[in-house]
Amino acid sequence: xxxxxxxxxxxxxxxxxxxxxxxxxxxxxxxxxxxxxxxxxxxxxxxxxxxxxxxxxxxxxxxxxxxxxxxxxxxxxxxxxxxxxxxxxxxxxxxxxxxxxxxxxxxxxxxxxxxxxxxxxxxxxxxxxxxxxxxxxxxxxxxxxxxxxxxxxxxxxxxxxxxxxxxxxxxxxxxxxxxxxxxxxxxxxxxxxxxxxxxxxxxxxxxxxxxxxxxxxxxxxxxxxxxxxxxxxxxxxxxxxxxxxxxxxxxxxxxxxxxxxxxxxxxxxxxxxxxxxx
Length: 278
Ligand code: C2E
Ligand code: CA
Ligand code: CA
Ligand code: CA
Prior knowledge:
Layout: H1 2-36, E1 39-48, E2 53-64, E3 68-70, H2 76-82, H3 85-103, E4 113-117, H4 120-124, H5 128-139, E5 146-151, H6 152-157, H7 159-170, E6 175-181, H8 188-193, E7 198-201, H9 203-207, H10 213-228, E8 232-235, H11 241-249, E9 254-255, H12 266-277
Parallel strand pairs: 2-4, 4-5, 5-6, 6-7, 7-8, 8-9
Antiparallel strand pairs: 1-2, 1-9, 2-3
This protein binds ligand C2E and calcium ion (CA) (3 copies).
């Protein structure tokens, strides 16, 4: 029995060590990725009810030299926990502004909005507002083309700081949307106090909106709520035409999901826009 316990101990030790090794390897690689700018932004189209492209959500990918193209699920958590999300987030914003500048006076692309995911750590930085305003100024872009996606986890954190920063940016034209709406704990009074222009219904509700009565109720309620507060409601994760129709019939006006278009490289997104809006 002593031998078995000993074996178990060494097995556990081995698992712990290899887990730590894996994590430090990720850490080392991620730091190199930031230095060498190994990231790519994919564009997932957002369409209105008439099938016109109104913009895109930017989703980060990591072109890892050995492991290939990695989805955010493979590294964003680590980036958040170590603070590496700060330089990564700055890179994303810089790229976004540069793209908006390139599109600025283009008749086909000039009106598109780009939505960027902002992590809690990033938003909490005291320099956040100044950085965004500096970015807009430096690139000479129309602030209204920039949309920042926040999640509900931010809300419970520090309402005062949140409201102050959001208001300062909204005054310059920047728009905010509440991502993954319905999965967090934000109350209606919170919602009412924040200068949000859009609610994004979380994919988990859209996924079974036609098969689960609770999801259906939640989706209907969120749409009505958004409408009554003067916010645009966008559904994410729309995969079937039946889902899209249900959403549209209930007053949802914007759609994002595999049905409309998968996240894609910029060149493909340009073609996509030309095909839909041209
Ligand atoms: P999210 O903001 O909820 O992004 C939507 C995710 O759903 C994306 O996964 C997208 O590829 C996926 N998706 C879109 N449409 C569909 C659909 O119809 N069906 C299904 N099954 N999935 C769909 P992705 O690209 O893997 O991103 C995952 C998460 O990583 C994002 O969730 C976001 O929280 C985070 N993320 C992505 N890019 C960034 C970034 O630049 N900065 C930060 N801080 N987080 C990011
Ligand atoms: Ca998002
Ligand atoms: Ca989302
Ligand atoms: Ca989601």
